[in-house]
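Give me structure tokens for this 320-residue protein.
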Amino acid sequence: MSTESTLERPGFERDLLGRLAKRWGDRVAVKKDELDLDGHFDPAMPDFPAHLVPVLELPGAERLDQDARARILAASWIAYNAKTAAIEDEIILPACRLMLTGRLPVRGDAVAVSALHQTIIDEHYHILMCHNAVGVTRRRRGLENIEFDPAGWSVVRGLEESRSGTSGFERDLVEIAFSLAAETTISGFLSTLATAQDIQPMNRITTDLHRRDESGHAVVFRELCGSLYRGLEKGPQELFRDALVRGLTAFRAADFDPWVAVAAEGGFEIGPDDLAAWARNRPVPARDTGPLHLLLDDLGISHDLVDMTESRKRRDVRAH
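Here you go.
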């Protein structure tokens, strides 16, 4: 049976995942005309919101001249895209492919397979969007040499630490739980830039296109991971919940080393310890827990998981 005939069945119209899959061509960035990046680049606008750059709040930052600050903001945009691409490439894409293998008791009908392949295409295109936008910034701002190791981000390290010592089915569950944390968290990660009117138009528009796609991915992952979680026995469910907490915590963990590299682009010499001290003296930022609550409701998990995540985040900040 073709995918199209499957999608046209009356039952499909009552299926949230099915409705998303059927509208894919109308709603995603990869199906739209290519954005004219240079045409949306305004050299007079900052590349990143200054209030999101922790190095600019450290002692000594007030002495930086305008050019140094501008280079730090441009490097922050490059770092932001490097982290976004690492999340897509190291966490979300492997989980999509894993759910297609048949090794897990996840929904595997034609609709689910279509939605997963669509998501894989989207995520690869998002990585390309990051690459292209960063390429313009490197060329226009003279930042050709700054690079970031995908394994250097806290969330990627968190996944590696969480799956250490696991294998087979348990390892698969940890990877799926982290991907679910990613798709629950990444829209919030993107939203601040997507709605910022006082930064580079190219950066805002690119991020907003990505954010719009991710709102659909959150539904895909809730539907598929929900089918998986509800089919697990008690022990694997507990493993999945713990991995989900670890994933949510890792997505909010501070990234110190990348910010050191960002500061260096403006000639500002700092170390990871400087950033750790800054983080310890600041309250944990408030965040929108609505998407997480919706996820927990879908899975039938207590909202106490939010408190567990916040508690672990505060503990990790103090540990640094």
